[in-house]
Backbone:
């Protein structure tokens, strides 16, 4: 299989391309299941068949879909910035089951371990809201630095971490008291975060610093910074955003934005082991269950690149909606 | 409301939330002209591209309010005061008075000569947010004078690059009557030369209804007689340029001060978190964010950045940090001041006034160190003699 990078001009071409891809791959299906891709400019989620790696349909949803995440019940939750709401989709039926108001301009969120609370960044308000997932009631609103983005709650549900893009801070929030207890200075324009599986480290991508800051969650201090370098790209063109860790905590995958690559990182060594060429402005990354494939959402080439993790090679790029943002996998 | 009063009021507002619990307070003074013809209602109402949309204090204010969290996190504070001047001499004494009163940074939105008068009167860094004249970056540069607004040459280079990328190589140049138009036309000529474009003709225009000088005033007559791919109009006033698109003899695009215009910012820019910035500005100030507002906002961001970099000061540490701290201008890349002329290197936006059509540097353009340095005077040109 060769890497295909398609930028079709129209939906017809896109569909044809998807069908062609399907033909090429027929019989070579590896995985089963579906990837759900949110798109900022289409009020629809694009469905990718993980067996054939082709688009098999779309689901109409709310406007300006951004962060997308699975709930504990296996439903798909999508934050829509323009609709000020989350759409909840049942993957079994492919239908929206309900909408939950998320306050003004929600961008990213995380769910409490018991699933009862949604922690959401309201980017225009410079605030984080605690939302009752049962009825959409705003329980708490906490003022943070401007343009809050990434939201992560600790495994025990006690501590919430929120990045502020403008203030270049990670706000550490005590969930019980709903108070900011520490502001940790990280690199310029922090975006997304991932915990090591033991919860001892929080890795934060810094979009305008070509780096990841590593925060010790016990001392709440930055203990290391991992700088990215890509041959042929200048530091200012390396703009890391999406980050995910493997379940064993040995590897991290970081989308490098305008550098059009994904970095594979050896977590204990804090070293980049591989760089994989993907689409334009690689934005968010998601592993499948077997951690055999990495799905990379490319915001400026309107496609998703599927990467073979073992070989550290791209397999295919699949055209999806306009300005795709995030992706979840249901297997 | 009187503009001076309004500036003072907003300065007081800035004091409110930041005055407590600070280890060291970075005091900054904004110097603006008063009276200021750019702020006449009749001019503001025109919304000419590249002209200010309102007072510089607005953008600074928004940035300082946004920076509160960042400042508080390191126990730092920024305090802004606004002073007015009605002449170069008044600008000089206002600058001196501000420095004496403890201002560690001056921000100026003044004409070129006044800016120089203010810069020469003090030792503290001066951030120019409103004057695009190339001479402030070239023969009249000063070692502690920084420029956030892009220079005329940067804007001209951005347009020339765009014309090259479109393969619109033959340009008809129309130049207005003011001394500023002559200077800006020279910058346009230099950019056209730098990017290998051909000027098929250069003509002067004049705003006039007089039939005896219709060859100077009539767009059809001005654009007849040669073939060209684009008409580049240099019109610092704006009225003639506004009426030029769709009135040319040949069906060709107009660029320069109407049609397609290169700017530091446009409220419709959709990428890199720009809509949030424009929305915050519009919400706070009640008007769309212009390129001049962006420059003022960036000055506020720079003040926050240096106060955060050196929360305890002293003023020397702030001055040092100013040249060294990269800034986030919500244009997708880290911005910094050029050591050779104090100009903030930055992406420029090409807009028709309705949306952002493209960006410069154009994709594919190469530069030995930083592609942003394809816009404006580059290091090897050594135009500024007072910089290292």
Residues:
């Amino acid at each position: 299989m060769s890497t295909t990078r398609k930028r079709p001009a129209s939906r017809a071409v896109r569909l044809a391309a998807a069908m062609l891809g399907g033909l090429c791959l027929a019989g070579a299906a590896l995985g089963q299941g579906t990837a759900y891709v949110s798109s900022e400019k289409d009020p629809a989620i694009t469905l990718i068949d993980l067996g054939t790696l082709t688009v098999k349909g779309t689901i109409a949803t709310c406007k300006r879909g951004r962060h997308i995440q699975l709930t504990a019940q296996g439903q798909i939750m999508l934050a829509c910035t323009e609709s000020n709401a989350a759409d909840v989709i049942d993957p079994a039926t492919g239908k929206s089951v309900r909408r939950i108001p998320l306050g003004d301009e929600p961008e990213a969120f995380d769910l409490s371990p018991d699933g009862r609370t949604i922690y959401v960044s309201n980017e225009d308000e410079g605030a984080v809201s605690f939302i009752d997932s049962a009825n959409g009631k705003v329980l708490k609103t906490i003022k943070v630095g401007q343009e809050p983005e990434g939201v992560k709650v600790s495994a025990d549900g006690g501590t919430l971490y929120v990045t502020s893009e403008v203030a270049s801070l990670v706000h550490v929030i005590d969930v019980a008291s709903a108070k900011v207890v520490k502001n940790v200075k990280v690199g310029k324009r922090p975006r997304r975060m991932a915990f090591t599986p033991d919860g001892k480290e929080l890795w934060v991508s810094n979009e305008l610093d070509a780096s990841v800051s590593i925060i010790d969650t016990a001392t709440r201090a930055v203990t290391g910074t991992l700088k990215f370098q890509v041959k042929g790209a200048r530091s200012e063109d390396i703009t890391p955003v999406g980050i995910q860790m493997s379940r064993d905590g040995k590897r991290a995958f970081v989308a490098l934005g305008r550098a059009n690559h994904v970095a594979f990182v050896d977590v204990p060594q804090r070293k980049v082991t591989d760089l994989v060429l993907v689409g334009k402005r690689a934005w968010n990354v998601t592993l499948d269950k077997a951690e055999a494939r990495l799905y990379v959402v490319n915001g400026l080439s309107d496609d998703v690149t599927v990467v073979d993790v073992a070989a550290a090679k791209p397999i295919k790029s699949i055209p999806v909606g306009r300005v795709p943002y995030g992706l979840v996998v249901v297997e | 409301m009187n503009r001076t009063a309004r500036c003072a009021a907003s300065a007081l507002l800035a004091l409110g939330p930041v005055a407590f619990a600070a280890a060291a307070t970075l005091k900054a003074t904004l110097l603006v002209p008063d009276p200021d013809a750019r702020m006449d209602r009749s001019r503001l109402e025109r919304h000419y591209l590249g002209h200010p949309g309102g007072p510089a204090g607005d953008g600074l204010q928004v940035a300082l309010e946004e920076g509160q969290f960042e400042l508080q996190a390191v126990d730092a504070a920024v305090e802004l005061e606004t002073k007015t001047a009605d002449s170069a001499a008044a600008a000089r004494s206002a600058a001196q008075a501000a420095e004496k009163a403890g201002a560690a940074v001056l921000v100026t939105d003044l004409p070129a000569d006044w800016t120089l008068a203010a810069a020469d009167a003090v030792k503290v860094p001066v951030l120019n947010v409103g004057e695009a004249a190339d001479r402030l970056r070239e023969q009249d540069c000063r070692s502690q004078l920084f420029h956030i607004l892009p220079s005329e040459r940067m804007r001209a280079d951005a347009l020339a690059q765009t014309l090259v990328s479109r393969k619109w190589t033959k340009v008809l140049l129309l130049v207005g009557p003011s001394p500023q138009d002559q200077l800006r036309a020279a910058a346009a000529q230099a950019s056209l030369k730098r990017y290998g474009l051909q000027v098929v003709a250069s003509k002067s225009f004049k705003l006039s209804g007089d039939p005896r000088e219709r060859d100077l005033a009539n767009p059809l007559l001005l654009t007849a007689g040669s073939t060209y791919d684009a008409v580049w109009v240099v019109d610092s006033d704006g009225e003639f340029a506004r009426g030029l698109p769709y009135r040319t003899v040949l069906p060709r695009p107009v660029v320069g001060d109407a049609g397609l215009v290169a700017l530091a910012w446009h409220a419709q820019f959709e990428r890199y978190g720009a809509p949030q910035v424009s929305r915050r500005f519009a919400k706070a100030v009640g008007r769309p964010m212009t390129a001049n507002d962006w420059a003022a906002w960036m000055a506020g961001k720079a003040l926050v950045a240096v106060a955060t970099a050196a929360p305890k000061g002293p003023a020397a540490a702030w001055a040092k940090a100013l040249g060294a701290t990269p800034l986030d201008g919500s244009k997708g890349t880290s911005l910094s001041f050029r050591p050779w002329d104090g100009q903030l290197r930055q992406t420029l936006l090409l807009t028709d006034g309705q949306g952002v059509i493209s960006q410069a540097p154009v994709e594919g353009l190469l530069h030995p160190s930083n592609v942003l340095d394809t816009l404006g005077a580059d290091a090897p040109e050594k135009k500024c003699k007072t910089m290292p």
Observations:
- The mean pLDDT of chain A is 91.
- Residues 11-25 of chain A form the longest helix (15 residues).
- Helices of chain A lie at 11-25.
- The radius of gyration of chain A is 19 Å.
